[in-house]
């Protein structure tokens, strides 16, 4: 029993078949090992219409609800979170354009995104703006028809890749409440004055996480998303909720991949004359891994259900993100133990899942921040 009706199950199965048949775990592993964005898979995904999911038909998309998006992320992550984020992550950023963009911005950026021609990284973080995202210092000053940007962004995943158009949170005013002085700009990554440097991070290796230096970068004012001063509210509202459901769903998908790989290994690895699966201690570990992954999946499905019904899902998605990301860490650590020395090799894939699990409790809001949100939403 997994609470999916026939249509949803068929959708999830079709995405999983695509990953197995048209992408393959070897390709995903190679992209991680060579720190290369999966361009070929990204373009194939666009041809299948995967990038048009959620985008309303009025904007040229295929519509679909958050349930469908969550199931796509879950299925896409069977061989790693980074791959799912590379293919599906642009959608949560693209939805900002659908919700707040002008007709010009939709034509200029949303349409090419759906065709697979451009990518949408999101750049909120800075050296002094991590969990405290409203502390953004990068300045954008209006000068005629442009904004002129100076400052430094940090941890932007995918900013350096070909065709990246960054949604960047910048400061346009110093206001008593620092949240009210922020604005989102749409910033192509090839503007004069931008320097983008890859970071040697533990995870997000295929997408590549970067730091961005901005030295008098001129961004046309027509690239402002929403009103000046609305940036924090755009990002902290719909954007982060959607990002968190994508992260939670990807974490569930990858945790299931880790359980499946560990089980398959335990059944074929012979020690002391029998498969290690026959040792009760290993069987119990596998039982815990599957039980906790099912629990994470149910929390994620609940968040998808609440979101798809149009209600606020702030608490439900924080719970799903918290539990699914911490479970991915636990399950992949147990998977490493079951695989013994073999788990240390890239060919096992488990070491990649393990690394990506470490990122999952940090990106999209740390576990501590998720607990803070859940506590804020609790009522007697
Ligand atoms: C590989 C990678 C990729 C990333 N990709 C992107 C991206 O594409 N775009 C983007 O904008 N950002 C990205 N990030 C940044 C990510 O969102 C931040 O790292 C995250 O929000 C945490 O910020 P921080 O690292 O500055 O940690 P800090 O905020 O400094 O937190 C450090 C520790 O203190 C805790 N802490 C902080 N404040 C509180 C509090 N109020 N209560 C309790 N505990 C607290 C945290 O939970 C954490 O344990 C990425 C990060 C990584 C590592």
Features:
380 residues; alpha+beta; Butyryl-Coa Dehydrogenase, subunit A, domain 1; Butyryl-CoA Dehydrogenase, subunit A, domain 2; Butyryl-CoA Dehydrogenase, subunit A, domain 3; 3 domains; 4-stranded mixed β-sheet; 4-stranded antiparallel β-sheet; globular; binds flavin-adenine dinucleotide
Outline the structure in words.
This protein is of the alpha+beta class and 380 residues long. It folds into 3 domains: 109 residues, Butyryl-Coa Dehydrogenase, subunit A, domain 1, CATH 1.10.540; 107 residues, Butyryl-CoA Dehydrogenase, subunit A, domain 2, CATH 2.40.110; 146 residues, Butyryl-CoA Dehydrogenase, subunit A, domain 3. It is built from 11 helices and 10 strands. The strands form 3 sheets. Strands 1-4-5-8 form a 4-stranded mixed sheet. A 4-stranded antiparallel sheet has the order 2-3-7-6, with no helix packed on it. A two-stranded antiparallel sheet has the order 9-10. The site of flavin-adenine dinucleotide (FAD) has 22 residues, from strand 1, strand 3 and helix 11. The site of flavin-adenine dinucleotide has 22 residues, from strand 1, strand 3 and helix 11.
